[in-house]
Specification:
The chain folds into 2 domains: 242 residues, TIM Barrel; 107 residues, Golgi alpha-mannosidase II (Immunoglobulin-like), CATH 2.60.40.1180. The protein is 31% helix and 26% strand. With 380 residues, it is an alpha/beta fold.
Length: 380
């Protein structure tokens, strides 16, 4: 009888569902900072009203601001929370996750970080522990995922301050690492795209407020080329570039526009699987051209072509204009006859059919994108 009871217990244990595992189901739009009662000029933190005006969805804060997040429909990336506290928050829908570490310097930190990630995962399997990386994945963090086993991969590279030569190299290596691990990728983008020299030349006290004439198209370039690589979140660095006390800077107004578009694109993008990424000439470092026999071709230069699938095996494309100075037209040829191509309107979130031509069992569509901009397409 005891043996039968023990066997029954084993069967029940084997058939019970495993502990919940976190899945990213909302596109992340965040910044380095959070809500405060008394925003100060030049600080990262700002008022909830300003955060809402900037169309942010995830904020960094302590437990003392969780109710503010709830009131304003923000998700909280909580700072300074223990696993014991996290256990009490596992069913709280206002929680996004728990910030554990920013920019670990090397592999000697990984075992401790792995322990922290696992402690939070055991306490709260519904919200991830968050660690952001800086530097090359292959060069500095090649064992990070294997040792730490994170639920999400985040990194920063600020091309307008640090140089464009590594922008796509970083995207290539971090995308590959995230795909190999089966975890979502999010990236940090500079909240002010002005050259550092120009910002410094503006004089003391004007570093964050300096507005570069090409700011919008440069930030679009950073965002939309990243989206072509399948990222599931954009994080703006840092709050000082976006907010001036309780109001938006000019750069923050640009960010609010882009974030508003991300809120329309995000519900679709977060559900798509990145299949491949190609570039048209001239090829940036470490990138690949569209293969000659590939089913989708782009005739013109300066384009990034992201290839995606949804859960039902439908094809999606994200075309990003890599030229941040000029509007460009892409002639997209799909080697299939009679394909309908829809563009997701970034203002309304609605799919809009595009005119197509059929030539020799190929579907051809022309697409115009502003400098640095991108468009999400659905094929059916």
């Amino acid at each position: 009888m005891l043996r039968n009871i023990l066997m029954l217990g084993v069967v029940i244990a084997m058939t019970m569902p495993a502990a919940a595992e976190w899945q990213m189901d909302e596109f992340m739009i965040s910044f380095w900072g959070g809500p405060t009662d008394a925003p100060k000029s030049g600080g990262n933190d700002t008022s909830p009203e300003a955060i809402k005006a900037a169309n942010m969805t995830v904020v960094m804060c302590g437990l003392d601001k969780l109710e503010v997040c709830r009131d304003w429909s923000f998700k909280a990336m909580l700072i300074g929370v223990s696993p014991e506290q996290a256990a009490e928050l596992k069913d709280d829908e206002a929680v996004w996750g728990y910030r554990i570490k920013d920019e670990p310097q090397g592999a000697d930190e990984y075992p401790t970080l792995a322990e922290r990630v696992e402690a939070f995962r055991e306490a709260d399997p519904n919200h991830p522990g968050y660690i952001n990386l800086g530097g090359s994945y292959q060069g500095l963090h090649s064992t990070f995922i294997d040792v730490v086993k994170p639920d999400i991969l985040s990194y920063d590279y600020y091309q307008w301050s640090w140089g464009q030569d590594k922008q796509f190299s970083r995207l290539e290596e971090y995308r590959a690492a995230a795909l190999d691990a089966g975890i979502p990728l999010v990236v940090w983008v500079s909240g002010n795209a002005a050259p550092v020299e120009a910002r410094k030349a503006a004089g003391e006290g004007n570093y964050y407020s300096y507005y570069y004439p090409e700011n919008m198209q440069r930030m679009r370039h950073s965002v939309f080329t990243s989206l072509a690589y399948g990222v599931k979140g954009i994080q703006w660095f840092h709050g000082c570039n976006v907010f001036d006390g309780g109001k938006l800077r000019l750069t923050g107004q640009d960010i609010a526009v882009i974030n508003g578009e991300l809120q329309k694109l995000g519900p679709v993008l977060v559900k798509l699987h990145s299949v491949d990424v190609f570039h048209t000439p001239p090829l940036p470092n470490d990138t690949r051209p569209i293969p000659d026999g590939f089913w989708a071709q782009v005739a013109e230069d300066h384009w990034v072509l992201g290839i995606f699938k949804d859960s039902e095996d439908n094809d999606f494309l994200l075309l990003a204009n890599r030229d941040h100075e000029h509007e460009n037209t892409a002639t997209l040829t799909i080697r299939r006859r009679g394909v309908q191509v829809d563009r997701l309107d970034k203002q309304t979130g609605e799919w809009v059919g595009l005119p197509t031509n059929t030539r020799y069992n190929k579907t051809v569509v022309r697409l115009v994108a502003a400098a640095g901009d991108g468009e999400l397409l659905r094929l059916r």
